[in-house]
């Protein structure tokens, strides 16, 4: 059974592999929502002598003018309408002022022009609602959050919300931009962006803010050529999904083991790797382990990676050849070339040794699994050496010749020494 057969099996029993976009294939438009903090703190006049909201408005206008025609844009604000002190009411203050869709530049600028710094900072709620605004379609979905302070309305905690959003799929990214952020704000924004595979940037001027937002919007317009397929690993090998060669995504909790199966024929070689993104603070001295085993639990090979301190991604990989598994048909001494190909279901096991103070109910950390099955790369055979009695004969002859030469050289050296 060839690669085409494996893919056919996968379509019936497990997830399909990620596929590159065919040339000329029409991609869905990227969808971007700009989320702007309009809370009371945006009145501070500490960016080039201007208020933060004035700088943000001008940056927004420049970004809107430069938007690619193919990008669907939406704008959501938080803390923009409620001026009172009732926290319960103020922490619900988030509205979408421009629906996600083809760019209407005049409408977007008009919506931004009337904004005035007003109330609280419900970042977590705004992120959750922005994800709903973007829907579940589009080649890329991106939230660009611009704020000058940390959330004042927890719960929901913005970091927890970001992890929830990341756990729902692989196409939603949250990038964060901090306007003159303090250390607490910076840590929160880094946590939000890291959880979704996004980026954090501190902006100290209008030029920095404008340039960075343009970069993020432009990046959304260029989706990756391969979108990993979502798969859910099992708790044991018997119930694990059967995977064909491809790229897959899953999520793994701290201390969890995830099982997957890959069929490998004799004469083929399995090459697999896994990368786990650390989307939260973890304790020192940790690692990621990937093992290949038989269905009955016998380990075949393993690969591991360990870290201590800050690391954004940990990876591990392994290689295993189907020829390393003895074929039952070959036990009668027949030539291996005459035997039919034997397929072995190899269990891939991904585990970790992380420890964290994050609540146990938090979604698992994102992992990416790459699988390939290729023709085995055999080492060249020696010309008959190492096979039974022939090896012993060669070694014996070599020892005899070496002994004769050593004896002759010794006698020559003694005779020469006596003459002198």
Q: How does this structure look, described?
A:
The protein is an alpha/beta fold. It contains 9 helices and 15 strands. Strand 11 and strand 12 form a beta hairpin. It comes from Winogradskya humida. This is VWFA domain-containing protein. Keywords: Membrane, Signal, Transmembrane, Transmembrane helix.
Quantity of strands, as a count: 15
Task: Give the DSSP E fraction (strand runs of 2 or more residues).
Answer: 25-35%
> What is the 3D shape?
elongated
Estimated helix fraction:
25-40%
Classified by CATH, the class of the largest domain is Alpha Beta
What is the CATH homologous superfamily assignment of the largest domain?
von Willebrand factor, type A domain
From the 3D structure, determine the CATH topology of the largest domain.
Answer: Rossmann fold
Pattern of helices and strands: HEHEHEHHEHEHEHEEEEEEEEEH
What structural class results from the helix and strand content?
A: alpha/beta
Strand order of the largest sheet: 3-2-1-4-5-6
For the largest beta-sheet, the strand count, sense and barrel status come to: 6 strands, mixed
Can you tell me the residue ranges where pLDDT is under 50 for at least 5 consecutive residues? 1-15, 18-25, 327-334, 381-387
Tell me the quaternary state: single chain
End-to-end C-alpha gap: 78 Å
User: Radius of gyration, rounded?
Assistant: 31 Å
Q: List the domain count as a whole number.
A: 2
For the residues shown, what is the average pLDDT? 80
How many individual helices? 9
Known CATH architecture of the largest domain? 3-Layer(aba) Sandwich
